[in-house]
Amino acid sequence: MGNSRIKFVLGGVIVIGALAWLGFVGFEESKSYYLTVEEYSAMSGLDGKTLKVAGDVVEGSIDRTKPQMEFVIAHSGKSLKVRYVGKHVIPDTFTDGSKAVVEGTIAQDGTFLARHIEAKCASKYEAEYEQKGV
Amino acid sequence: MSEFGNFSLLFALCLCVYALFAALFGAVQKQHRIVRSAERAALAACVAITVSMGSLIYLLVNSDFSVTHVSNSTNRELPVLYKVAALWGAHDGSMLLWVFVTAMFSGIAIYQNRFRYRDMMPYVVAVLMLNLSFFLTLNLFVSNPFQQLVQVMPDGTMQKFVPQDGRGLNPLLQYWAMVIHPPILYLGFIGFVVPFAFAIAALATKQLGDTWIRTTRRWTLVPWLFLGMGLILGGKWAYVELGWGGYWGWDPVENSSLMPWLTGTAFLHSVIIQERKGMLKVWNVLLIVITFLLGIFGTFITRSGIVNSVHAFADSSLGAFFIYYMLLVLAASLYLIIDRLPFLKSERPLDSVLSRESAFLFNNLILVVACFAVLWGTMFPVLSEWVTQSKITVGPPFFNNVNIPIGLLLLLLTGVGPLFAWRRTSVASLKKAFFWPVVFSALLCAALLVAGMRGFYPVVSFTLSMFVLVTIFEEFYRATRIRARNTGENFLRAITNLTLKNKRRYGGYIVHFAVVLMFVGITGNAFNKESTQQLSPGEEMTVGRYTLKMTDYDEGSTPNYQFGTVKLDAFKEGKLIRTMKPEKRRYLAGDGQTTTEVELYSTPLEDLYVIFAGLSNDGTKYEITAHVNPLVWWVWFGSAIMFFGSVITLLPDRKGAFGTPQTTLRKGSLLEQGALK
Question: Which of A23, A26, A33 is nearest residue B392 as measured by Cβ atoms?
């Protein structure tokens, strides 16, 4: 009786241990620092690290004429030039003024090389109404 | 109308608070009439809430743009169906839907048990009403859908403001699965409140046998089923509407609905142990408390915007209230559990590792670990920000690394669990039970390896799937053969009657069968192919066995949106299968949102998934992305089977009693010896 309890606990520990190890490996592989553009420009020593940087897409900055799309995101007066080097389709919600989160690394010349873009539309209407009162 | 709706809501809150205190007072004073009055007040509150929701729907359908919610989530052109659906298109309205669903669940549970469990019911009523009052309070005072628009004039006075037209419903939400996805998820999140209330009542009245579990079996299955279906519909929507080629991305909001589903699944299994063996009592109470909390946590994640997500509802001021509420529920439940520990003693120890009990225990352990891993990954950005001031996010590799092995372990348990006998299993009976499943799965495994499949996880997954399929088939086949022999029924009739006579068991196997089909579909992910090409008319691209030849490009506009459509002829191994027209739309209402219309050619073997990503950078070519996703079809088909199996387990028993297994076979039959031991 006690014996089977020990066996069960032992089995459980082994399984959970293995899972924890796998989780740790996946965690190391996929962790990235999440910063706003403002925080990003205040920090140093980020070379080579995978980062996620959030900001608003500057109106008119999206440049699709180059082989790789470029744009600028900004937050609290700081801005960051981004080049999209990813393969996936750019989300529908990515437009002038949308809130974007870019994931990637920083290049030598200070341009951010984004492998992945997430975007949310800036709910303009809601903002307008809120300014009007209530 | 908006004042009327608002007033009904306030009235409902008063009734709820009265019902809460009357129920507790009646229970303590043993005054049956006061409890009765509490129950009636609770039912009246449900009616008032229904009236309130009716009035919001009235406002939506009649486009009364003086109400913030109406102008924010509809416009005049919107079809009536979507106007109604816009009820849950913004967070204040979806909060009312939440309150309404909570009221319905609470009301039905109270009404259904009005002559039963008289000692437990006052506490059930109290818990349900406390919960309802909380959400009503939020709905009234923090996130009120009846709020009217006002304009601050230059001189500082305020005036009513009625816009000409509303903002319109986000076009991404204008899809059938998305229309029913939130209400169905809500039915899932909220429904666990009933078993939770019964668990608390059982603790309060110290009736900790399996009464509360038997009573709430269906009350657990229903939300579990809705939650599962909500997850599937969300996935279907993501697949068909979002255009990134997949259906699950470990998004925080997806995760938050997966978590209660995982613990709910664990609960559905572990209650069987308590019913049959009187074990795991503390565990079951804990599981239902956790499941209920995770349901609330799910809405908290969606509403508060605490974790970044594709879901656009964000940053409402509700967050803090949810946290306090969850802490309160957790603290109160834990206090009750600890206080009642002496009544929660297990009636029996674990006999052997090779037993049905231990398979169930292991299944529970793994489901809870999976839930914890998902929680950890989802909340890590928030936790890391608290601890180290820097926000660290984790991506799909973390979730996949942990959950793929967990999924495979669960699949294995799905197969071997039913082969183990209760208490302990002899080696001889194991050999017999494992023979055919092992033979078939070994054959499949060998065939896959010979055919050149090398990925470790896919091979294991398909092999285990075969193993489980054979065990399920054997379960049905053996019992049906015996029944056919004993009763003289033909095979088809015997299998139907067998299932209907023991719905929980065989319905459960059908659900297991569905799970296997879904695993097969999910495993298909390992073989996805993708290609992106820039084409001009006349050019072609290849992905997998398919060739896509661009023929034409077309632009135009409808009153609702502008569109650009690429026309492609799709060939499978040289044979024309159909013309595909992936489209890019730009909606005129709202923020000028663009959407990608996916073209999908779906077969059980594989999906061809084509999207028009946009013009190339120099504007002369058209960028097409094509995915070949093998076996996705089985995910949707499996979920339909899962629905069917769950409905079978939910069917009422002819003999009236709740969920007691009925075996009509004579004693000594193989079923009795082997399977039901």
Answer: A33
Residue B564 touches chain A, beta carbons under 8 Å: no
Residues 35-64 of A with CB under 8 A from B: 35, 52, 54, 64
Give A131 to chain B, closest Cα distance, Å: 9
Which residues of chain A have a CB within 8 Å of the CB of B400? 26
A105 touches chain B (CB under 8 A): no
Secondary structure letter of residue B319 according to DSSP: H
- pLDDT number for residue B429: 81
Alpha-helical regions (H) of B152-216: 176-191, 193-205, 211-215
Q: A with B: how many residue pairs have Cβ under 8 Å apart?
A: 148
pLDDT tens, N- to C-terminus, chain A (134 residues): 467 778 888 888 888 888 888 888 888 887 888 888 887 877 777 777 788 888 888 888 888 777 788 889 888 788 888 988 877 777 777 877 778 888 888 888 888 888 888 877 544 333 333 333 32
What the block records as the tokens of B460 is: 């294991």
Q: What is the pLDDT of residue B357?
A: 85
**Cα separations in angstroms, B330 against A71, B103, B249, B296, B385:** 47, 22, 30, 12, 24
B305 or B276: which leads in pLDDT: B276
Q: Identify the DSSP state of B418.
A: G
> For the CA atoms of chain B, what is the radius of gyration?
27
Q: Any idea what DSSP says for residue B652?
A: P
From residue B425, alpha-carbon distances to B252, B274, B351, B354, B419 in Å are: 42, 20, 10, 6, 9
**CB proximity under 8 Å: B 618-657 to A:** 618, 625
* Residue in the block written with tokens 């044979």: B575
Alpha-carbon span B523 to B350, nearest angstrom? 35
Residue A107: which of A75, A76, A80, A74 has the closest Cα?
A80
Which uninterrupted H or E stretch holds B130?
helix B121-141
A-chain residues within 8 Å CB-CB of B365? Answer: 12, 15-16
This prediction has a pTM of 0.87
Q: Does B399 lie at the interface with A, CB-CB under 8 angstroms?
A: yes
The ipTM of this complex is: 0.78
Residue-level pLDDT at B84:
87
Q: Which residues in A lie closer than 8 A to residue B350 (C-beta atoms)?
A: 1, 4-5, 8
The string of pLDDT tens digits covering residues B16-25 is 999 999 999 9
Pairing of strands B540-543, A70-75: unpaired
Structure tokens at B412: 């294995």
B542, containing H or E segment: strand B540-543
Q: Helices (DSSP H) in B489-591: which residue ranges? A: 491-501, 503-523
Locate the chain A residue with the closest alpha carbon to B384: A33
Closest Cα partner for B171 from B78, B238, B239, B76? Answer: B78
Question: If you count them, how many residues does chain B have?
Answer: 677
Q: What is the pLDDT of residues B636-668, one digit of tens each?
A: 999 999 999 999 998 887 654 444 443 333 333
More confident residue, B198 or B310: B198
- Could you give the CA distance from residue B168 to residue B438 in angstroms, rounded to a whole number? 57
* Interior angle at CA B38, CA B37 and CA B39, nearest 5: 90
Which ranges constitute the DSSP H helices of B340-426?
356-388, 396-416
Closest residue in chain A to residue B369, using alpha carbons only: A16
